[in-house]
């Protein structure tokens, strides 16, 4: 399925990285394990893994977080914001699978680092609710799925093509702005040569508020054949940059993800959990969280802020355009944004 730029939809003014994805940040990888079956139970779910740096446990990366609306969960969020550091990959999954993914993430960390036995590790695992399409009363995700996503993330680092998006991994059962949502990513490069990339798990909003490159597409479309009875809930947003930023600056970058979601149509409904984390790979920390360089702060962050907003807005669209129409539990359906009607409205609006 095409991404936004494949269809001539350009968001913002900054150039993208080579793959227009999180893979444009050196050392970062993204992998998925998709669980899609109908027998014996309907499963539209999975797990995605973002590797920030293979040696992050020994040399943590600066981290910071922000919350737009807190009706959701992300393990490790408090520790990352308190210590301003992250030492594990970030895992994404569906709400009721979070515990299973957390357990598997601990096992992966224990396998890789025997010293965890005395120092403890708190994996970062974020969730969104995929119960519109997925039979969430059954535990579909296995330890093998988590290990598969992690191995795929390690293998993807330095890749020359964009990673899977849309209805893959954790995005398999997600819905967004009245259409099929899921995994979306995009990147930007700044004038001073830094790369800023955003990864989203989109599962928020209602159809009438969908906005594409400033065009109020949602108000121009007829009502959906079927939508969740309440606004789809939540978006986990991750931003990672190779700029030398500290934890406080990572939190400021993370907060800007919400501006990108707002441009696409988010209003952060009551039951929605917009939880954001930012990470920097340009500085690294020792086990006592001491940086190995001088961070970029203050007005030096200004070039990074629009990069986050543009990449987040485009990542929303990529998550929807690359996702095929999906039928799931009880015949519930989320239709793809990539349709002749939507494309015609976009051409007319531009």
UniProtKB/TrEMBL annotation:
GO function terms (MF aspect): aminopeptidase activity
Gene3D superfamilies hit by this protein: L-amino peptidase D-ALA esterase/amidase (3.60.70.12)
Family as reported in the entry's similarity comment: Belongs to the peptidase S58 family.
Top-level taxon of origin: Bacteria
Annotated protein name in UniProt: S58 family peptidase
Pfam families the UniProt entry points to: Peptidase_S58
InterPro entries xref list: ArgJ-like_dom_sf, Peptidase_S58_DmpA
SUPFAM superfamilies, per database record: DmpA/ArgJ-like
């Amino acid at each position: 399925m095409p991404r936004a730029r494949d269809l001539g939809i350009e968001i913002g003014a900054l150039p993208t990285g080579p793959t227009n994805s999180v893979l444009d940040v050196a050392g970062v990888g993204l992998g998925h394990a998709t669980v899609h079956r109908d027998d014996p139970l309907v499963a539209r779910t999975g797990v995605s893994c973002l590797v920030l740096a293979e040696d992050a446990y020994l040399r943590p990366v600066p981290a910071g977080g922000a919350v737009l609306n807190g009706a959701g969960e992300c393990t490790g969020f408090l520790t990352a914001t308190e210590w301003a550091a992250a030492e594990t990959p970030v895992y994404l999954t569906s709400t009721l699978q979070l515990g299973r993914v957390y357990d598997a993430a601990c096992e992966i960390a224990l396998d890789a680092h025997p010293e965890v036995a005395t120092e403890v590790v708190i994996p970062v695992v974020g969730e969104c609710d995929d119960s519109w399409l997925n039979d969430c009363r059954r535990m579909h995700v296995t330890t093998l799925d988590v290990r598969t996503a992690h191995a795929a993330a390690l293998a993807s680092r330095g890749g020359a093509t964009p990673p899977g998006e849309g209805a893959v991994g954790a995005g398999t059962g997600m819905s967004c702005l009245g259409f099929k949502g899921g995994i979306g990513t995009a990147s930007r490069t700044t004038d001073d040569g830094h790369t800023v990339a955003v990864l989203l798990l989109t599962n928020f909003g209602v159809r009438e508020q969908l906005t594409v490159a400033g065009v109020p597409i949602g108000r121009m479309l007829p009502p959906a054949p079927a939508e969740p009875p309440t606004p789809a809930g939540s978006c986990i947003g991750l931003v990672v940059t190779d700029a030398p930023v500290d934890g406080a600056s990572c939190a400021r970058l993370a907060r800007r993800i919400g501006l990108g979601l707002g441009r696409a149509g988010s209003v952060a409904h009551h039951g929605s959990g917009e939880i954001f984390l930012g990470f920097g790979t340009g500085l690294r920390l020792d086990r006592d969280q001491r940086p190995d360089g001088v961070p970029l702060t203050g007005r030096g962050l200004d070039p990074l802020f629009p990069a986050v907003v543009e990449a987040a807005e485009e990542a929303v669209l990529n998550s929807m355009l690359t996702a095929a129409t999906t039928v799931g539990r009880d015949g519930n359906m989320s239709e793809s944004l990539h349709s002749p009607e939507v494309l015609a409205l976009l051409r007319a609006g531009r």
